Amino acid sequence: MFSTRLSARAAAAVVMGLSATGALAPAAEASVFTAQPVIEQNFVMVAAPIGSSARSQLNIYEQVSQKRPCFTQHAGSPTVVNPLLSEFDFSGICSRYIDSNGYSLRIGSEDKGTSYRLSVVKEAGDVKLMAVSSSGREGEASYVVARAGGDGAGFLKLTFEPGWELRRRQYGSRGLGHLYLYRESADQAVASAGVN
């Protein structure tokens, strides 16, 4: 995992250096990393509680090896997830992505990680994963990316809205330790009035 993150940082440093010298056009910058499909059943996205507060954040867990389960899911609406990886040394068995170092928003060829933040919001009896513009400019769209299908306590499974999926960031032929919450285009995405 360390070497993949190091490679991503090294690649980003090269891109930033070339951009500063004018050696790369904006279109070329967008294509440095690609977004490769993943085996979705190896992943679960959850609204994870933050301490003892009522707030939650996005966590993504990946089953890397079948040596032992990384999580279990309990039927219901919403679906409660038990993140088993907190009970053992999960090195080489599970991966977890718990903040913007591990995941970001991507639409088509554009990585929106610096312009959109992913926020878990509780409203109208549901838990939603929102992509919210970081600029704070009025009128910029926010998108509903996933929902829990109800409200509840604990780790709640988030299910993508139609058109959204997980993809892995890739540099050349190498998959990196970063995931994209990906959509081919913003057209027909479920938009919201915005979340602060």
Please characterize this protein's 3D structure.
- It is a single chain.
- Helices cover 13% and strands 42% of the residues.
- It has one domain.
- The strands form 4 sheets. Strands 1-14-15-7-8 form a 5-stranded mixed sheet. Strands 9, 10, 11, 13 and 16 form a 5-stranded antiparallel sheet that branches.
- It is globular and about 45 Å long.
- It has helices at residues 2-21, 26-30; strands at residues 33-37, 43-49, 56-63, 72-74, 80-82, 94-97, 103-107, 110-111, 116-123, 126-133, 142-147, 156-157, 159-160, 164-171, 174-183, 191-192.
- The longest helix has 20 residues, at 2-21.
- It is built from 2 helices and 16 strands.
- The chain is mainly β.
Highlighted features:
single chain; 196 residues; mainly beta; five-stranded mixed sheet; five-stranded antiparallel sheet; 2 helices; 16 strands; 42% strand; globular; disordered N terminus
Quick overview of this protein structure:
By secondary structure, the protein is mainly β.
The number of E-state strands comes to 16
β-strand amount: 35-45%
Largest sheet: 5 strands, mixed
The percentage helix is 10-25%
Span between termini: 33 Å
Radius of gyration using CA atoms only: 17 Å
Q: Poorly predicted ranges (pLDDT <50, ≥5 residues)?
A: 1-29
Total individual domains: 1
Alpha-beta classification: mainly beta
Put simply, the count of helices is 2
What sequence of helices (H) and strands (E) makes up the elements?
HHEEEEEEEEEEEEEEEE
State the shape.
globular
Overall average pLDDT? 84
Strand order of the largest sheet: 1-14-15-7-8
